[in-house]
């Protein structure tokens, strides 16, 4: 029994091995093609793998900052350079008018400066030279002869004294003659003061009003800048900077016109005061010569009356 049992076990093991082998599975009749799939999969080449479709990329929505900068570039035209000329050309009409007016005021200031410098230098030199020439004169006639036919304030003073002495001939009151001559000389001095101060009032006006005119242009330019901000609906510095720069340029031009005007006015006030002191000296010299002539006339008249009595 044991040999037979062993033989049966061996036959069962051999049958199991044969059934498990692929060759036996292919030779078995009546079986489907499903068990042969592993062999076919091993023998046939692998099929080409189709690539997976790429996922569609959805563009991200632009950020708020990018949209703001894009709208700013479209609505605001910023000049490439903030030079004074480019700022002037891109400024508002009112700001341009303010700048042109202040530039014209500055031109007037420097014109008055040059003209008054030449005028005051010439008249001061004339008065000093005339006073030096008549320093040794003993009478009005000698002083006029020393000056010749020159024109100026001192010849006018001498002529006024001579005219008053001629018109007052036969009047014995010397005090009245001197008083009337002093009044004539005072009128000449006042007229000369008005003449040399011509243009200084304009300098004072420019120096006092130019900063406020420039400030008006600044306020107008900043107001336009805020209006541009409200229209662009952005607080970007590129929107605000050009208008503020143009406004500040108006203030700068106002200071450029005002500061020299004030300095020049103060300078001419000192120079004019010194010149009027020279004119007063000339008036005093003419009054002294008139007084000498009057005293000499009375002395001569007294000597003639005494000689006639003898």
Walk me through what this model shows.
With 310 residues, this protein is an all-alpha fold. It is 78% helix and 0% strand. The chain has eleven helices and no strands. The longest helix has 73 residues, at 237-309. The radius of gyration is 57 Å and the shape is rod-shaped.
Which characteristics define this entry?
310 residues, mainly alpha, rod-shaped
Spell out the blueprint of helices and strands.
Layout: H1 2-20, H2 22-27, H3 37-43, H4 64-75, H5 84-89, H6 93-133, H7 140-147, H8 153-167, H9 174-196, H10 200-232, H11 237-309
Summed over residues and divided by their number, the pLDDT gives a mean of: 76
Low-confidence stretches: 23-62, 69-80, 302-310
Tell me the major beta sheet: none
Cα-based radius of gyration, to the nearest Å: 57 Å
- Separation of the first and last Cα atoms: 217 Å
Number of helices: 11
Helix content: over 70%
The secondary-structure class comes to mainly alpha
Total tally of structural domains:
1
The SSE order reads HHHHHHHHHHH
Strand fraction equals under 5%
Overall 3D shape: rod-shaped
Count of extended strands: 0
